[in-house]
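Z., the sequence and structure:
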Amino acid sequence: MREPAPADHENRELPEGRGPVRYAPGAADAGLPVEPGLATVLAAAAGRTEPEPPGGGAVLRDAACGYWWRRGLRCHPEDVAAAPGAQPLLAALIAAHAGDVLMPRPCPAGWAPQARLLGRPAYHVPTPAECGGVPDPYALLETVRRVRAEGGHPALLLLSVADDPTATVPPPELMRETCEAAVGEGLHIISDETWRDTLHDPHDTVLVSPAEMCPDDATVLCDLTGALLPASWPAAVARFPPTPAGSARRARALDLLTALGAHVAGPVAVAAAHALDEPDPVTTRTAAAAALHARVAAAAHRAVLTAGALALPPRAGRHLYADLGPLRGPLAERGVTDSMELEEYLTGRLGAPAPGGHRFGDELGALRVRLPTAPLLGTTPEERTEALTADDPLELPPVARALSSFGAAFRELQEPR
């Protein structure tokens, strides 16, 4: 079988003396101080010496079950596995399934590398115009047909219900069409629901999990550092279908986590269980953080559109995804002709990571970039805490200055070099 071609940026030779801007997924999102009650729980567990077993202990898995039950997903501790972060857990989930991997374009930065690490062919499928997170169902069917015609074995579809990088939420009818197409072709679905608790308008956005539509054919993955834990406390949980096949895949995933020594740190497991139990201070902080990022993301979105670039309205998460294709001419005058150069240019101009679209599976020649909102909240813990509690955070001087500088970086592209 012909292997899928690597993305152009993987084979690109960098000019002498230049290296890629280092980017760690999620690193730019760790802006707000830790919720005080959560910090107290972690500190109280700091003396814990016994390790968590592979896949997580009973307390952590039981807390994850409660989290999913409250969201309408039936779950028991024997259906759950935990790991120290989304990357090792996703690797275990992919390894538990035989066959090739399909994913939308664009998609989270860590997905394709995980498939490559395991030696699995990975295929990107275009997303519809109105959102990211899921492949267009007709393009999915065509990709499956093509891969099989070439001798491949498509078996797994990765998708997001609240998308990183596009910050969009697929509408329920599109999610249903995509899931029905995937299941009809014998694909198992891994649904990344890391950002589901960061909806910008939770009363006007309908989020539906594939596990609600096809409970026997969907595994749910949630990186707790998305909304519940700080990025420095790595923990992620997965919910397997409550079926014999789901139990077998969970057992295979636990084998890999055991081989990797991928254990959640004991004190972090205690804090993660506390966060998953969702006491009032945690839910209040989660809602306040989502509202703050929503306000700032909307302002950043306006600035991007005013400069002549394109971006879908952000609906979830802590970022937006901009297409600077309409500004290709002014960017070329500044030596920017692809997303790798765009990443380097905007990272330097904004003073914060601005990973290019090539990291998310987009073509290197497309001038797309993921813009985090966390750097716009202030530069000190005190400033970010004030933004979290302000009636109108956009009026605070640190936020206003950051947004002004952000907008200026894009407005200047409308001016001759």
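DSSP finds 15 helices and ten strands in the chain. The longest strand covers residues 154-160.

Let me know what you think.
H.
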